[in-house]
């Protein structure tokens, strides 16, 4: 009975944080559909039944359609990383709908390959912006005890959107799919309309009364006892001190020396490695080119059916990661994730190589199992957790710029991987590409074991000289 009472009390305390997190992640869910659009559609675009008036898409054009999303990612990261601190978290959340809606509109009316380039760039801007604005907003409003879980929900919603997108794209016409999904933009605007701005930004803008009201909302504070009032006031004072250094003082200007302090240097190196591994592992490429990979691997199973299975596995893995991230910790999940992805990649490589010289259609399930295992293990740590750890491992003063820099590295690496993946699949075969991805993951596991600290439950206020 006591345990149930405590759980209910905690649920009440975190209710508004959870509802706000779900609201802002609607666009992450919709963005998952935008990413999922490519994998099943690319096979159609490359066929003689291509819906484009310009005809079937070539391998070179396919590599550009796949990779330009990362160009948009860099743009979105820099743009929204700047807007985040200029106009605030909430207005930045609103602005995400502009490129996102533009993506769906172009898909509705686009008829040639350059139209798809523009659409994918807009999709990248939304993704780059969403993965800096949403985690920052959630980290600002979340209690330390559930910060990891709430932070992980962006990937849960994103991957749920990918799964839904795989299913809908495989069963709906090329023109109908965007007409349905564009409606999520309206739902998103309605749901975030009543949310207060993040208290941290309001304090920075010297809007202290608004900041107190926002903190009351996100902490679901109700002054029942004198002790609770005192605890709330202490939390508010600590938050002001953390943002301004001291109550009433202005934050010092940021200089390059701030990035040379031990904590900042250590955080940047680890964060850069994390985001590099996130893309160099090939997990995002697997999502974008899933149908092509299954078709070229020697599997006899329907590529789109296999893609849906992988999408379901990815969602399950991310959901489990959200549950265990604040129980097990970030470090062990990331290391085990790297090892698991490597095992899956090596398995697919071996299957693909053997299928070149013998008929293995009766073992096609191995290809699906290998990719599913890589995606499952990646979803436990390597896919979601770098975005959480990067915001946790950096000192408060340099965090916005450092996170923007790391996400730019993410986009550059992502562009490179997505651009060369289709070409490498032709030149090296699936077995060669998977062998390279598996090797990179093993190296990453060793590096993370040696240098990655645990950040579970730690306060976001990191000493710069530590």
UniProtKB/TrEMBL annotation:
Family annotation (Gene3D superfamilies): MFS general substrate transporter like domains
Domain of life: Eukaryota
Chain ranges passing through the membrane: 21-44, 64-86, 93-111, 117-138, 150-170, 176-196, 263-287, 307-325, 332-353, 365-389, 401-424, 430-452
Subcellular localization: Cell membrane
Protein name: Major facilitator superfamily (MFS) profile domain-containing protein
Sequence ranges assigned to domain Major facilitator superfamily (MFS) profile in this UniProt record: 20-456
Keyword Transmembrane among record annotations: yes
Keywords associated with the record: Cell membrane, Membrane, Sugar transport, Transmembrane, Transmembrane helix, Transport
GO terms, molecular function: sugar transmembrane transporter activity
GO cellular component annotations of the record: plasma membrane
Pfam families reported in the protein's UniProt record: Sugar_tr
Bilayer disposition of the protein: Multi-pass membrane protein
Organism of derivation: Hermetia illucens
